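Dear Dr. V.,

Thank you for agreeing to look over these. As mentioned in my earlier message, I'm a first-year student in the group and I'm still getting used to reading structure tokens, so any feedback on how I've presented them would be very welcome. I ran two proteins. I've put each sequence directly above its structure. The first is here:
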Amino acid sequence: MQPLCHVDESSALLQFKESFIINGSDSSNKLACPLVQSTPTAVSWDGGICDKDTGHVIDLDMSSSCLFGSVNSNSSLFQLVHLQRLNLAYNNFNYSQIPSQGRAWSLLIDEKCTNATLPKFYGLDLASCNLSEFPHFLRNQDELQWLSLAYNNITGHVPEWMWNISIESLRVMDLSFNSLRGFDHFPIPLPWINLAILDYSSNQLEGSLPIPPFTTLRYHIPNNKLSGKIPQWICNMDFSTGA
């Protein structure tokens, strides 16, 4: 009989949990919860889902788990090579600094990580993780369908390499409620050919309005400091702009 989850991946999940400081009085510690439900194709518990056929962990939701710490290049998270969806929203990854060639990131996945180490995600929610810059591991993500970095403390410009991630697959991008000021050489229109929802609202964006792809259904960009003309065709979209 195929086990519900591979022993090595179960161990990796436990190690990942134990690598953080967790508020012992908090009841949202998802990996401490037992197996609760199953479907024809997957077995799940509060926090994770294993594929029922292969036994591999494919989904991990540790949002609102009161995690404090950093994710480094040795993290057992990267042993979950079949992981497709990861939700670490509403945690705090700025509790400690781990040395990394003179640099430590709020979400610390350092440059020693390679393509072979990192899973390919189709969904990634890092909202409210107290990030201060764009996680560099996103450079190698080419299969994302949705990405949320909302409600963080990311400052400065959206880096030019962001225009190259998941060009064919990305459908939702949410960068709202940060402190972004602009963009590094954004293409016109933006390159994601299947994008449906784009949210840059409540930042400090200056300059001209980024032009979304024609596939975009909802474009939210109020509460910024943008200037210049709005193309006529954008007026037919479901979107909002800021002064």
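The second protein is here, in the same arrangement:
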Amino acid sequence: MIDISQTQDVEVVLDEEYFAAVKREALAKALRDERVPSSQRIRRTRLLLEKFQAAAS
């Protein structure tokens, strides 16, 4: 029989790993976008970081 509490712990870890992967990809994409000036890329990156920090809390 599977212990549900262990399963929930695993799900939480997977969610955190997924969240971290999404965060890395979004930040990398914002920094790579050469269609906009570097100052705007930096601003976008800061805004993304603020959104991720708000979502994590």
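From my reading of the second output: The chain is about 85% helix and 0% strand. The CA atoms of residues 22 and 48 lie 11 Å apart. Does that match how you would interpret it?

Kind regards,
E.
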